[in-house]
Amino acid sequence: MKLRFLAFESVTMSEDKHILKRLQRGDKDALRQLYEKYTDILVSVAVTLVHDVQTAEDCLHDAFIDFAATVPILRIHGNLRSYLISCVANRARDLLRKRARSANLNVEMLNPGSNADGPSDRLIADEGARQVYGALGQLPYEQREVFVLHVQADMTFNQIAELTGASINTVQSRYRYGMEKLKSLLNTECENE
User: Fold this and answer.
1) CA-atom Rg of the chain in angstroms
2) What's the whole-number average pLDDT of the chain?
3) Which of 78, 108, 138 is the last residue before a domain boundary?
4) Confidence tier at 124 by pLDDT (50, 70, 90)
5) 95 and 165 assigned to the same domain
6) What is the pLDDT of residue 107?
7) Are 33 and 64 members of one domain?
8) Which positions ≥6 away from 68 have C-beta within 8 Å?
9) Residue 20: which of 89, 57, 87, 73 has the closest Cα?
């Protein structure tokens, strides 16, 4: 399984390098292709960080505008997917800082969809997702960010440390404390039902 994943990742990285070279030559279709390829994961990460679909989409669009502007001089030393996730996460962090400074923080909860078969399955899945998103929203931003980047965006702790400017130990501690708090919040919620 691990070998198959590494082969897939290698193909994706070479595909991304090809797209990036096309972008650097001015191929506008390459930017559209990259956008379509990574939109779902990037919006998903942003929504989990900012708890608002429209704001998440704004973060994505702003990150792509900045990315497109820097393409001619861009040098990526990792994989493009992680780079784009970092751009969107940074955009979300900046936006939340601005909101906190203006004391006008308006957090809306995401109403997640589901691919469940029947209405009752969908209702159960939606309720479970709401509980998780609600609990994530109660975590301090630093813990939520590490959790989302590690679990949802599949970034390593080293990549997260590099992105956030925190030490690897700090990142791992934030993840551990976040997981403990999530478990506690979800267990408390289950006990109250």
Assistant:
1) 18
2) 78
3) 108
4) low
5) no
6) 38
7) yes
8) 23, 31
9) 73
